[in-house]
Specification:
244 residues, alpha/beta, six-stranded mixed β-sheet, 18% strand, Enoyl-CoA hydratase, ClpP/crotonase-like_dom_sf, catalytic activity
């Protein structure tokens, strides 16, 4: 059963992360399903733009610790979003953690409700935001990113907008999204594709230069003793042994 819902209206395809019982965690299956759905959108001339959204109260809790994707598969998914010849727009109404923020950062435009919260929780389970740094570093404020990645603190949609993770936020996310969708529907398909290539060139350069090394780093960290302790502590709902 696919973990991705797919609908299309007036040239806009909506892909929905639909595994709310697992907080839309990035399992191997969900990553594969999303990659397939994005490929379908790329091959459909009737699709002008893609909206990436979710069911439940969580956009994505990050990597599924019980069934994580291979690091290379996650890196490929993030690059696929950046390189897709259609604008990809994140619509976030719930909580977003760790790898889920990589999905948001990879999108061309990201809007969220003010009820959404965000956190880079990797350091708290003994790993680092290695792969998601590929779309994050070119698009976000370095000082804000350093604070949130190094501490794992939770922050709100207003801060996510200020640091560049989000494009905009509001109490009614669909009211924020409406003019964005109207804009892409008024744009010519060829001009949209050409403009996206201009805007994503530097982000794709970071993938082509650094993805292999960061994939290896991610694999090494996830297999470390600290990661084993951190993930076990998370699943057992206790502090890891290094907390002082």
């Amino acid at each position: 059963m696919t973990a991705i819902g797919h609908a299309c209206a007036r040239g806009v395809a909506t892909l929905t992360l639909d595994a709310p019982h697992h907080r839309n965690a990035l399992s191997a299956a969900l990553v594969a399903d999303l990659a397939g759905a994005l490929a379908d959108c790329a091959g459909d001339d009737g699709v002008r733009a893609v909206v990436l959204t979710h069911t439940g109260t969580t956009f994505s809790a990050g990597a599924d610790l019980r069934d994580p994707p291979e690091p290379g598969a996650l890196a490929a998914l993030l690059r696929q979003i950046v390189a897709l010849p259609r604008p990809v727009i994140a619509r976030v109404t719930g909580h977003t953690r760790a790898g889920g923020l990589g999905l948001v950062a990879a999108c061309d435009i990201a809007v969220a409700s003010t009820a959404a919260t965000f956190a880079f929780t990797e350091v708290r389970i003994g790993v680092a935001p290695a792969l998601i740094s590929l779309p994050l570093l070119p698009r976000t404020d370095p000082r804000a990113l350093a604070r949130h990645c190094l501490t794992g603190e939770r922050f709100d949609a207003a801060e996510a907008t200020r640091m560049g993770l989000l494009t905009a936020c509001g109490d009614d996310v669909d009211a924020v999204l409406e003019p964005v969708l109207d804009g892409v529907r008024r744009a010519s398909p060829g001009a949209l594709a050409a403009t996206k290539r201009l805007l994503t060139a530097r982000v794709l350069e970071s993938f082509d230069r650094d993805a292999d090394g960061l994939t290896a780093l991610s694999a090494r960290l996830f297999s470390s003793a600290e990661a084993r302790e951190g993930m076990t502590a998370f699943l057992e709902r206790r502090d890891p042994e290094w907390v002082v």
